[in-house]
Amino acid sequence: MLQLRDVRVVIDGHEIIRIDELDLAPGSRLGLVGESGSGKTMTAKAIAGLLPDESKVSGSVIFEGQDLLTLNDREMSKVRGKRIGFVFQDPARSLNPMMRIGKQVSEAIRIHSDLKGDAVTAKVIDLLHQVQLPEPETLLRRYPHQLSGGQQQRVMIAAAIAADPDLLIADEPTTALDVTVQEEILRLLISLSEERKMSLMFVSHDLGVIRFVCDRVAVIYGGNIVESGRIEDVVAHPMHRYTAALLAANPGMPKDDNFSAFIGKRLQTITGSVPAVGKFPSGCRFRNRCLSATDACSTMPSPITTGNDHRYLCWNPGDRGQS
Amino acid sequence: MLKHIFRSFFTLIFAALVGSVVVFVLLRQLGGDVVTAMLGKEAAPIDVSYLREELGLNQPLIVQYLNWLGDIARGDLGTSYAMKLDVFTEMMRRLGPTAMLTIGGLIVSVPLSLILGTYSAINAKKIRSGFVDVFTTVGIAVPTFWVGLLFALLFGVRLGWLPTGGYIPFTEDPLQSIRSVILPVAALSLGVTSVFTRYVRTAMLDVMNEDFMRSAMARGRTRRGAAIIHGVRNASIPLVTVAALQFGQLIAGAVVVENVFVLPGIGRLIVISTLGREVVVVQSLAMVLMLIILILNFLVDIAYGFLDPRIRDKESVDV
Amino acid sequence: MSDTSTITAHTPEDVSVSRLRKRLRALPITLYLGGTLISLFVFVVLVSFIWTPYPANKLNLANRMAPPGTPGFLLGTDRAGRDVITELMLGARNSLYVSVVSTVVAMFVGTLIGLSIAGSNKMLQRPLTRLVDTGLALPGILTAMVIAAKLGAGNTTATIAIIAWQIPVAARVTIGPARQILALDYVEAAYSYGRKKPYVIRHHVLPNISPLLIVLGSVMFAAAILIEAALAFLGVGVQPPTSSWGRFLNETQSLLEAAPYLMFFPGIAIVLTTLGFNLLGDGLRTALDPQQSRSGLA
Fold this sequence. Notes:
The complex is a heterotrimer of chains A (323), B (319) and C (298).
Chain A: E1 2-11, E2 14-24, E3 29-33, H1 40-48, E4 56-63, E5 66-67, H2 73-77, E6 84-87, H3 91-94, H4 101-105, H5 107-112, H6 117-130, H7 136-139, H8 149-160, E7 167-171, H9 179-195, E8 199-204, H10 207-213, E9 216-221, E10 224-230, H11 231-236, H12 241-248, H13 259-262, E11 304-306, E12 310-312
Parallel strand pairs in A: 3-8, 3-9, 6-7, 7-8
Antiparallel strand pairs in A: 1-2, 1-4, 4-5, 9-10, 10-12, 11-12
Helix pairs in contact in A: 6-8, 8-9
Chain B: H1 2-29, H2 34-39, H3 45-55, H4 61-73, H5 87-93, H6 95-122, H7 127-141, H8 144-158, H9 174-208, H10 211-218, H11 223-260, H12 266-275, H13 279-307, H14 309-313
Chain C: H1 2-26, H2 29-50, H3 84-119, H4 122-137, H5 140-151, H6 155-182, H7 185-192, H8 197-234, H9 245-253, H10 264-288
Helix pairs in contact in C: 2-3, 2-10, 3-6, 3-8, 4-6, 5-6, 6-8, 8-9, 8-10, 9-10
């Protein structure tokens, strides 16, 4: 339902994003994982058409047969909220402090449907029920600052799915929240996605969280999708060295659904840090931090696909963690 | 919220007291004797001592101050020495034009600034917003009285569309009354609108960078829609705090414009009294105008509390 | 050896010249526009001390209200037969005089008050700040009337009024940034090795807020010129025989029908000068603090 082809985002002459191919099947949940600065949020914004004005985007983002990159702001606004919903990282800042909860949840309904008055209110109450918020009738009239962080994020989710989108893009939706609350929100996203047959694009820096939520994963580094595939395949047999390093940094990868058992157990970090924009090496963008880099890595590897649609960009793949 | 109202009220009282002391001391102590200032150096001694007695200048300064405050509280603003007029009555008689000017200025400048400032913020970095910038830059630099003269010349003398001076009371003939203040209000509004547009633009630019604007766009608002539905509402908070400054500007503008268009308002009265060295009249008028500005500020402060749900809820708040 | 020396001898200079050129080009256009207008203004004032077309207040009774272009009177004469160019040059002098004095004094006192409030304890800070806010809300014209009623009209009155009005402006603009700097870790650390507050303010706060003060000074200058003109226009400012743009405009008011063009000259002079200082302020703001190049400083 969502296909990115040759998507390039250029800001100030620097190529920030270069994604040759990224697919999301209907009803599936795709995780987009990478460190901060890897381009994952940029990718989400590029899909949403919410990049800053000075960025140049090329390629195609085909959503349900329509190329979103050809749409202008007005046309795109008919896609945003109605067909694609968004949930952002910091719920406290993402909600308008001066607008009642009900009005913010109903915003997409009022924009995209002909419902009016009581019908809107009824739908908002139903939505607040669906995101498991207590006493929706009184909550409607409250302001964001009167809610806890977890409740605020539930409100954001309710507002994002208000117009029944086919795809929900969640950008680090739990990063700003307490660990216990995180799990509740993640479970809510999973159940909403299953009940509504809604695809989910889940952006996170945490492979563990993605493993918990998603069935497929795309690993992004330096704006490139360096590896993608079914989550079990990628976790069990990471091919790209960066994926392997991410996994090594997250040793308590869960084999079951016990969330709190592994969260917060990250030990080893990847050597160095993500370079600044425009400071990435040529060829494989990870090679200056990769412990297994060879001379071949100075040219861009071409994608290799193995069984089960497991795809990666690496000259020197390994299927175990970096040592 | 109660605390917020209480604090605003305290500020009002405190500022009014400090202001009254400043006005009083300035007029009594600055540059010599009040009576000499009023009558001139060659006044007959009998006149001097009579006026001294009448103004209560022989009493201790603190008593004079308290008497003056008491008089103002009772609505007794003193008597004009030269015109032999009760200042309060005269002020009420002249309230009409001044009120029409300031209210007219508000009606014109606030919506206009909101539209121009928002437009400029939404189109920031585009040529279109440059026009607004040029307008405000020039508008701030142009003296109100000169704009008044230009308008009078163009629309009054040359085109003959509108009167260049004089005032018809609203109760007498509303239409002619409004016609008589159109040019003064236009002249008055130019500077105020320019300054306020800049504030709106700054406040809107700040709000446009907020995460919740992105959320609104993610729900299907266009950039402009988000700016109008969410932006203006949130930008109103910083704007309300600077609105207080605008009242002072409007009243100052009214004083000037009344003199350009010869409108019989309070501003004209204060200038005539100043030129006639009517120390007592000016003192009282300045105090009253100051009180009006302070009370407007107080009301704005309260409105600010009602506007922001975070302040409404909080018991104590840093404003 | 000779090769390298010629290279090193030339390169730094070329680099610095091209870098300078680049930096000059990066400066905002408003800075150049404002700078040009102000230079022109100051130049006219300086020239007025050694040369004006006619002596001050020379009445050419035969040539009263001569239109612009009259031989000997490029911009014509006013109602009393004074040469317009001479009047404008002398008016510029008075404008500059009043605004320099008032801006310098108001900046000094206002900054001092602002710094004192920023450095005072928390209990005092809030009421004092709100008091300054209130002072900001009171229009300068009102203060001027009060002072003029007592002192009589004149330049002194105008100057004192402008000072009284500008002090809260300077104080208010200083308080916020000064408080931010006083709260910085390295500034707080200065106390731990025994520095007293006045020292800290002089050596840490003042240098940090000086760009702000420069911008502020420019904007205050513009405001001072406008008020000086307004007061003179109302008859409360400078008195004859001293020339002033504001009073010139007042005199043209009665000539709206007879000689309407006269009001353009002093008006345009005021606008260009005010515009110059405002543009200079805008430009300086952008140049000194590119991050926060916003408009809307009071």
